[in-house]
Design goal:
It holds the Pfam family AA_permease. It is a multi-pass membrane protein. InterPro entries: AA-permease/SLC12A_dom, Amino_acid_permease_CS, APC_YAT. With 491 residues, the chain is mostly helical. 68% of the residues lie in helices and 0% in strands. It is built from 20 helices and no strands. Helix 1 packs across helix 6, helix 4 packs antiparallel against helix 16 and helix 13 crosses helix 14.
Length: 491
Amino acid sequence: MATRQGGKDSPSASTDRVQRNLKTRHVTMIALGGCIGTGLFMTSGSTIAKAGPGGALVAYAAMGLMVYFLMTSLGELATHLPTSGSFAAYNARYVDPALGFAMGWNYWLNWAITVAVDISTAALLIQYWLPHTPGWVWSLLVLVVIFLINALTVSTFGETEFWLSLIKVVTVIVFLAIGLAMICGIMFRPAVGLGNFTYKDAPFVGGFPAILNVFLIAGFSFQGTELIGVTAGESENPGKAVPKAINDVFWRILLFYILSIFVIAALIPYTSPNLLSSAEGDIAMSPFTLVFQRAGLASAASVMNAIILTSVLSSANSGVYASTRMLYALAKDHYAPAFFGHTTRHGIPMASLVATLVVSLATFAASIFGQRIYMWLVAASGLTGFIVWIGIALSHYRFRRAWVVQGHRVEELRYHAKLFPLGPILALILCIIVIGGQNIEAFVNWNWQEIGVTYISVPLVLALYLGYKIRYHTRIVPLKEMDLSGDPESL
């Protein structure tokens, strides 16, 4: 197996490689925006309804800590070896080539399917203003726009994500400013205070089971943060951009999630039915919409619909980018047909881009003509994010151990994760708990269909892993034999 290093290929393929044209501000804002999705705008309210304000804060804080450790692990790997293959390449090099194969293909399929879900959601959001227009037209239009953005240059993608993410960031900051002002009675009187934190059974409602349930929901809110590892392969200066983005993860989580949950819980009692309605996709019931309305913004629902639409467009745009680059990297590592590794003169892997959009389009068609197939396709991508996170934690743990075994010092690394080995071990355990706890009730009732729908991504990854392992007789890479060479351009 040939392993790529930092976007560099063999001399004969020197023209077929991606270009490092993502600026530090692009990478930083992509990482920033990756934490803010429809989960924050819509489902954050339901977590308060289910576990109370205290339970929601504990769950998001615990999940946020896990994501922080994961991102610092990924930061150490990505600054040492920045590559578009990211965690799949690290799985292959630092754990087992078969694991790299399984993770790469599974991640590509996950995002290709998710893009189809995103364009369907975008159509529903557009129909909020234009209810009598056909949704499929808007979905296809969004897909064409996403294709054009990703087909030009990587800097076009970066610039688009920069502005889409900026809209989300500004929205959250304005929300927090207005919310805190309402709590304290500044400009909005009387002061709301913190009475809702002790209202009825608050702050903790439903005990530990409720917190665990919210913990699972919170995990999905952070999906996509691993995209920072993929962007490292096309960053102008990964040694600077990636650590900067990673180091900001903690503050992003604190500001955007913990503070937002605090403000929502203070302003809206956990017993409000609106909090559960928002999780069902009712824009008018979004906690953000309700707070803006109380502040006097008459068109709050329309404004939030537009902002959530930018969030969905950002997710689709990032999904196409991530899956395209993963398929490109799989080809470079001889895990996929070689033509997927060819790029245009602007460094765009066009064959990989087209293949990704074909799968997205087929999934979208299934949502219209074959609901049962569509349900299983979406289920197959459900737990991929957590499985990828397990791979990141494993790769970092083995990389750092091999680094020491082979006589290196931690100080030699461009960036090194804090609290090793606690960080990756804690992240690994929590990811396994989250995956196992997705649908415990299905196991209690032995509902095989529910078990299949919930956990199908787990046997899918195992089948890919074992199939490749049996076919090519791979083995777990011994620590002393591990290739620890990095990319000199990142140092």
